[in-house]
Amino acid sequence: MSVHSQRRGMAGAGTAMVLVGSLTAVSATISGYPVFGGQAVRYAVAALVLLLVTRFAGGPARRPAARDWALLTALAATGLVAFNVSIVAATRDTSPATISTVIATVPIVLALAGPLMERRRPAPAVVVAACVVAAGAALANGLGGGTPRGLLLSLCALGGEVCFSLLAVPLLPRLGPLRVSAYSAALAVPMLLAAGLAADGAAVLRAPTATELAGFGYLSVIVTTIAFLLWYDALGRLGPDRAGLFAGVIPISAVAATVALGIDPPGPADLAGAVLVGCGVVIGLRAPHPNPAATSREIPSPLISTDPAPPSPAPQTPTPAA
Fold it and tell me: Can you tell me the distance from the alpha carbon of 213 to that of 168, in angstroms, rounded to the nearest whole number?
């Protein structure tokens, strides 16, 4: 991987997580709108923008294979729908701090699971860095409290956040960040509407106020469209383990957004957490980046293979991807 590509990936991952971190503050503007209907609107607008960009600037058409559609559906169901449903349900049983602290362990999970999907062993330095990042994010969030059910739902949200990245890994080489973002957002819309109909009935959608419309516009275009593209591009350049380190930026960005809006000044824990996250990211990115091709023999079979056919010892003509 070239230095330029790595720097571009780092910049993209950092920017994406800063944008996602602003979600908490901006979401206050749509707090009165039906939750699942609002999320469906958010992803519908984002999907429309992404599909239009794909149509005019997406390069040669690449039709997803049946396996690609299965992965995209799983990504939308877990990384978008289940994540949002779990977050909403968890807030009824536990504090936002607990939810954020559980989700802050995302870098650790990606540091361990990401390399396995690329048929290489986790880098100890990156795992240690992920633990430092998670500790910093948890410190900035506060540990909070809640019920066992709330903790379980928080773990479900963590699983959705992990799937959002890991399920995209085998899709990015074939479809690219633009199509993965567009297709997953579009697939999430009917799922969220179904969840909204079950929870709110006919009240799942209504005409938004001017303030809500502005909030939806920001969440759709900035937090979803741009952040998705930057994140998936960074994921392909850095790998899920190193890109995952930047997930610790989310709570720090959320604190910065609340400060910028004059909602709440940062405390000592916020500042200490920011320092820990920064140290963890630096440690992880300074670790040697292994060549997946050179280390692929360390683990016989990947969790999700991106190869069109299993490797064979006999020489053969490569088969083009469908």
Answer: 30
Strand partners, 146: 94
Whole-angstrom distance, CA of residue 192 vs CA of residue 38 = 9
Q: Let me know: does 20 contact 137? Beta carbons within 8 Å.
A: no
DSSP letter string, 262-291 = TS----HHHHHHHHHHHHHHHHHHHS----
What pLDDT, on a 0 to 100 scale, did the predictor assign at position 120? 85
Residue whose tokens read 């959705």: 160
Report the 10 Å Cβ neighbour count for 136.
26
Helix (H), strand (E) at residue 210: helix 210-218
In 10 A of CB 288, how many CB atoms? 8
Amino acid at 68: D
pTM: 0.79
The DSSP result for 28-51, as a single string, is GGGTTS-HHHHHHHHHHHHHHHHH
Are the C-beta atoms of 192 and 84 separated by less than 8 Å?
Answer: yes
User: What one-letter code names the amino acid at 161?
Assistant: E
**Per-residue pLDDT for 315 more than 50?**
no
For residues 18 and 232, the answer to whether their CB atoms sit within 8 Å is no
**Distance in angstroms (rounded) separating the CA atoms of residues 241 and 111:** 4
Confidence bin at 307 (pLDDT 50/70/90): very low
Nearest Cα to Cα of residue 164 among 266, 43, 269: 43
Whether residue 304 has pLDDT greater than 90: no
| Paired tokens of 190 | 């009917």
Please give the mean pLDDT across all residues of the chain. 81
Residue carrying structure tokens 């607008």: 45
Distances (CA, A) of 219 to 25, 46, 127, 153: 11, 9, 32, 24
Q: 106 forms bridges with which residues in the sheet? A: none
